[in-house]
């Protein structure tokens, strides 16, 4: 089955939908049974059976089936947030005394969660490349976690190479695939064991939901669904699942539009004298472009630039002068957004992540590329004067 059919039709012609053009939203908190024996059987298999909202329900289940199919995974589990999915996934794979390798830059709260696990005896090491992995791996290492493209810097990881390295050493791999969406990159087909997403971004697509998902083999998803998912209580609501389903319907249309507008803006910025660097894997000048073309079928519109300044005031002035780009966190919706870590992140944390003062993250939305470029051009006029 192709991705467009999965997004628009998978599971939507089944009898329980009753012909509704939008699949029903099951709002009930529980399901009842004809006999005690049926209830007992359902509770023992609550990862697949409808018992209580905290487990799953038909609306959430449909979203999970679509997302698993898009990633070419056997199963998927939706959570109430991206961090719900990430924390439950990591927790399901490690125990006291275990060690985690983190390859490249990853989402800040993911690192915070790994630091949190230290009080339970789980340690981690950040490394830049496979050579670093070779040096940092221990007998107690169980998990290799990474993003590609990476957080803020948008460096590209050779996914088959990393997955193969980990497999040879008996490690489980978990990759955050939020940047690309399952339309533009399918890590499970390249050897990664589990894939996580923030559904709040491109998959939702309208900045109106918070959610997360993990997809992969039944062998890894089932114990996670029965234990961490249930105990952490980060259940996705049926209404948010319905928004995910609606977001998926337009994802094949939205992502090429994001790609087109994002690349147009990136090309403009690459030639601007007030910009030192543009970190967009879709540009031929990007160090990881050849790898990206080999393992991705498209590019999203989230990237960063480094302004030609060491002044926080110049960065703040640039943001304040923008009119089409709104200042805010998150990304992946219709609206274009801008954010600058130097204005909101502790200097020590920023230094650890290698983020310069002038780095600005852009999420190019679905507005006219010409309008966005004009907006940026006017805002950049003042950068040189304040640098």
Detailed description of the structure:
- The chain has 387 residues and is α/β, with parallel strands linked by helices.
- It has 16 helices and twelve strands.
- The relative contact order is 0.12.
- 41% of the residues lie in helices and 15% in strands.
- Helix 3 packs parallel to helix 11 and helix 13 packs antiparallel against helix 15.
- The chain has a seven-stranded mixed β-sheet with strand order 1-7-6-5-4-2-3, sandwiched between helices.
Descriptive key words:
387 residues, alpha/beta, seven-stranded mixed beta sheet, five-stranded mixed beta sheet, 12 strands, 15% strand
Question: What's the topology here?
Answer:
Blueprint: H1 3-8, H2 36-44, H3 58-71, E1 75-79, H4 82-93, E2 99-103, H5 108-116, E3 123-127, H6 130-136, E4 141-147, H7 159-168, E5 172-176, H8 181-184, E6 194-198, E7 212-216, H9 218-226, H10 228-232, H11 238-270, E8 275-279, H12 289-295, E9 302-307, H13 312-321, E10 326-327, E11 337-339, H14 347-353, E12 359-363, H15 369-380, H16 383-386
Parallel strand pairs: 2-3, 2-4, 4-5, 5-6, 10-11
Antiparallel strand pairs: 1-7, 6-7, 8-9, 9-12, 11-12
| CA(first)-CA(last) distance | 53 Å
Fraction of residues in helix: 40-55%
How large a portion of the residues is in β-strands, by DSSP E? 5-15%
Residue-averaged pLDDT, rounded?
94
Overview in brief:
One of its GO terms (biological process) is transsulfuration. 41% of the residues lie in helices and 15% in strands.
